[in-house]
Design goal:
Layout (H helix, E strand, L loop, with lengths): L1 H9 L2 H11 L26 E2 L3 E3 L30 H12 L1 E7 L2 E6 L10 E7 L10 E6 L4 E7 L2 H7 L8 E7 L1 H8 L3 H22 L2 E5 L5 H7 L15 E10 L7 E4 L13 E2 L2 E2 L11 H9 L8 E4 L19 H7 L12 E2 H10 L24 E7 L2 E2 L4 E5 L8 H5 L20 E6 L3 H7 L11 E7 L1 H8 L3 H22 L3 E5 L4 H8 L8 E9 L8 E3 L8
Parallel strand pairs: 15-17
Antiparallel strand pairs: 1-13, 2-7, 3-4, 3-23, 5-6, 5-8, 6-7, 7-12, 8-10, 9-10, 11-14, 16-18, 16-20, 18-19, 20-22, 21-22
């Protein structure tokens, strides 16, 4: 043990991040460490509450209530959705589409909730926060609120005078607010042990996706303030207040995002530099409530999770300068929004598939559209990038290894998607992988989609074997692995960028979740896969230093008829 401590002390933060990633890989003959069993008596409560904080219920709105939900397709057409003012109703809709419950499932006397934001194992380590100033049409006092999804309500954690709240938001476009995301690592570590930190970051990326998409339904912009120091976020969200977390499991800051109605444009150039953690205003005002304890007993300590959390802590701050164009006049509320389904319906019905039928195929046109939706178009200025890729400011770092099983008109086999053609010509990838790959463009593939066939053949067993033997990866229409430019990204940005690599994978996954629902099928994320065997299948040279971070699969679902589905809110919720 002393040797381990001495080694950790001699390692740099970057070394510690890389050591965590290596130690938490799954191999054919070894899985990442966990308890090896589920301690059901100590399972953490999936709902955090702050006892003593005033609870403000949010209106529960039907899909046909104002503001009307746009069509799902309208989300991907810039300026087709009119901007709605920030009111209690629109804030309610925002959190409903982003982080709320969407249903309860029940089987044999056991009941569990589903949410708008997916989560590894449905364990939900992610917590949401809302910070506002005095807004004319928002009937809330200025300050910080914690979102309580079970109640669909806001807990008022921090009350501030209007002038101080406005001072905190001085760099945010007029009429806007902040939303924050945190993680409770123990919720995932209870089941997944050391690999849990990865899954928390996947979930944070999915939450960025649900928040950005929820904002889009209201005609709002959302931008992750990726230059902000973690200590500033922790102070702003009340996570450093030990007196409020004495008996509770710790929360860690993940991200802050600015949200504002698109028709309230900022100045032509916006300098987003959030506050220094030592600003005295962060110590002013009145704090309310204490965090509830989630598990009966103390959490099991996984030292390597604490180590990587500290090593990936962002202690630097950068200014993000964004150039905006003049506002474009939106269309009318329903003009040009296409046929059903509504965006709200797709968001509400999203589920993680638990099994696929092994028969359903997907048209090539729909498949190509799905892949186009996850292209960030990194050559465009950030405000002009397609939704949801306008929410994150860094250049794309994640590429896709596709296992195509049943796409009409496409031969089955192994494919590759280059998500950064602006930065990397295809020769960059050819030189890093197996020499025998053919790198041919599939027939009918759109010119703006850099999709390549590497090797033709049945890839079902391969996809299943790489995904820890899970049949869901082979019974789907297609599966994929998300491969990161790992070492290069960490060297360029720093060890804190480790989390953002996972956020990008979660954002890709969230788009695929909704795209599958819109296509009448279903999808699911796969966190259990054999890391290095994926690299060996691709023939990635060891010096290339890429890493597979997340798997995903899309197909025709098999529903479990034994389960009863109940609405998210009603008298049955206690």
């Amino acid at each position: 043990m002393n040797t381990d401590i001495a080694r950790q002390q001699s390692e740099t933060a970057l070394d510690q991040v890389k050591r965590y990633h290596e130690q938490t890989k799954h191999e054919f003959n070894r899985y990442a460490r966990s308890l090896g069993y589920l301690d059901w008596a100590n399972q953490p409560n999936p709902f955090r509450r702050f006892d003593g904080a005033p609870l403000i219920p949010l209106p529960r709105l039907a899909l046909d209530e104002d503001p009307l939900s746009p069509s799902y397709e309208a989300l991907f057409h810039s300026h087709s959705i009119p901007s709605h003012p920030v009111t209690l109703n629109t804030v309610s809709r925002f959190f409903e589409y982003a982080l709320s419950l969407t249903a309860w499932k029940e089987y044999n006397g056991t009941r569990w909730a589903l949410r708008s934001n997916p989560s590894s194992g449905n364990l939900h380590p992610t917590e949401g926060y809302f910070f506002c100033s005095s807004l004319a049409q928002l009937a809330l006092e200025p300050g910080l609120y914690h979102y309580a999804p079970k109640e669909h309500a806001l807990e008022h954690r921090w009350a501030l005078p209007p002038d101080l709240a406005q001072w905190i938001l001085q760099e945010i476009p007029s009429g806007g607010f902040l939303v924050g995301v945190t993680s409770i690592h123990w919720r995932e570590a209870w089941k997944y042990g050391e690999r849990a930190f990865r899954y928390c970051q996947h979930d944070a990326g999915h939450a960025i996706g649900t928040l950005r998409i929820a904002a889009a339904t209201l005609g709002w912009n959302l931008l992750v303030l990726s230059g902000t120091m973690d200590e500033t976020m922790a102070r702003l969200l009340g996570l450093t207040r030990q007196q409020d977390f004495q008996e509770a499991e710790r929360e860690y800051p993940e991200m802050l995002a600015a949200v504002w109605p698109r028709n309230l444009h900022p100045p032509p150039t916006l300098n987003l530099a959030f506050h220094n953690p030592d600003d005295p205003v962060l110590s002013s005002g009145e704090w309310k409530g204490t965090a509830n304890r989630l598990s009966k007993d103390e959490p099991v300590l996984w030292e390597i999770i604490d180590t990587v959390a500290e090593a990936s802590w962002k202690s630097t701050q950068e200014i993000e300068r964004l150039a905006f164009h003049s506002p474009t006049a939106p269309t009318s509320a329903r003009e040009g929004m296409g046929p059903e389904p509504l965006a709200g319906q797709i968001i509400h019905q999203r589920r993680s598939a638990v099994a696929f039928d092994g028969r359903t195929s997907l048209s090539a046109h729909r498949f190509f559209t799905m892949l186009q939706r996850i292209m960030p178009m990194g050559d465009l200025p950030l405000p002009d990038r397609p939704m949801p890729w306008d929410a994150i400011s860094w250049d794309p770092t994640i590429h896709l290894a596709l296992f195509v099983h049943r796409i009409d008109g496409l031969p089955p086999g192994l494919y590759w998607v280059n998500r950064s053609p602006e930065q990397h010509p295809i020769s960059f990838f050819k030189s890093a992988m197996h020499e025998q790959f053919v790198w041919s463009t599939p027939e009918g593939c759109p010119a703006n989609l850099p999709l390549y066939l590497l090797e033709e053949g049945n890839a079902q067993n391969l996809a299943m074997q790489l995904s820890c033997g899970q049949e869901i990866a082979g019974d789907s229409a297609f599966a994929l692995g998300m491969v990161a430019e790992f070492d290069e990204s960490l060297a360029r940005h720093g060890p804190w960028f480790y989390k953002r690599l996972f956020w990008e994978t979660g954002l890709i996954g969230q788009v695929l979740y909704l795209e599958a629902e819109a296509a009448g099928i279903r999808s699911t994320g796969i966190g259990c896969f054999f890391d290095d065997p994926v690299h060996r299948v691709l023939g990635v040279h060891p010096q290339t230093k890429w890493q597979s971070l997340y798997h995903f699969t899309v197909g025709g679902p098999l529903d479990d008829g034994r389960l009863t589905t109940l609405p998210p809110y009603g008298p049955h919720v206690t």
